[in-house]
Amino acid sequence: MITKKLIAPQSFSDVEISLPTSKSICNRALIINALCGGDFSCIENISSSDDTEVLFRALSEPCKDVVDIGAAGTAMRFLTAYFAQKKGSNVILTGSKRMKERPIATLVEALRELGADISYVEKDGFPPLRIVGKELKGGRIKLSANVSSQYISALMMIAPAMTNGLEILLEGEIISQPYIEMTQKIMEFFGAKVSFGDQELKILKSFYKPTLFSVEADWSAASYWYSILLVQKGGEFFLSGLEKESLQGDRAVCDIFAKLGVETQFVEQGARLFYSPKSIKMLEYNFVNQPDLAQTVVVACCLENIHFCFSGLQSLKIKETNRILALQNEMKKVGYVLEEPKEGMLCWNGKTCEAEQVPLIKTYSDHRMAMAFAPVAIKFPFIEVENPEVVTKSYPTFWSDLQKVGFYLE
User: Which of 6, 144, 221, 261 could cysteine-pair with 278, CB 3.0–4.6 Å?
Assistant: First the structure.
């Protein structure tokens, strides 16, 4: 087991942080670019995250019999749909042990309904999958909207190639809707015809056109700097590459932290963050559209003694780990007792317990657990983070960026 000791500085250096580019945007652009036969040089600022690298390899290398995407959930969902429509392909799509525990039946059944040839290699409803590519007929399907927006995005992106196009009737509460809207906008940028309204998506049969596309900086990565600044109660950070008018739903992080005590000033090259004290004792928020921000905000609120009741978290249990349970376990190590009053909720009413002297934070192979807990070092003399290398999944330079502002790591 590898651990990293993390010690926070007394004060921060005001430095510029070059954030990674958005893997969510990048992965969609790569899939669509592959569908239209474009040169990958058309995609500028390709993310260096693990998730994007495995997807890029799968799309750019000669077709293999077995494609192993490791722990990349986005790649699993997007490639399932991509290979299903790729005539002549015959692959087994597999991944890590955790990936084999993450359900994919909703997507597989939808693709089968559209004419796909997909079978389960091991356990029904879960990867690995054998996929034989063929032309898909398309048509009209119903899909549960409250499980994972990645299923919907995966189907959307291959829809223009279907014989009859595709209509998707979304049933139930739509979670992570900004990700669906992100997919729509990127598809339209490449020439697809998409309409979205009244729980229904319509994608006409059409042809993508190879187009120069630049990937913007990642708002999810920015969230950790908001949290650090809040807990430190001082200093400024400049985060380059952030766009005010962003495709990303996680841009909402600047609105959430404005309530907590961190303001954002946008300039041409990015955004400047600065501490601005607020008096807030309770925060209620529905994360249904920004589930990836939940861990960051949970940790920040506890450290700042801000009670909270968060909803819209139902998708957290099928991420890289069960993030609800992981948060409860690890926050208890630093003295906070979180409660799950019902499915999709997580609350803290101020209940505490005795903290460990030297908290060892487990990451559960989840990049966001490692980064969300970094601000804990500001409140403790030092903490240890287990398997810190998991950050490469989305933010490979996270630890070196922390060192730039004065954190000490060993």
Answer: 261
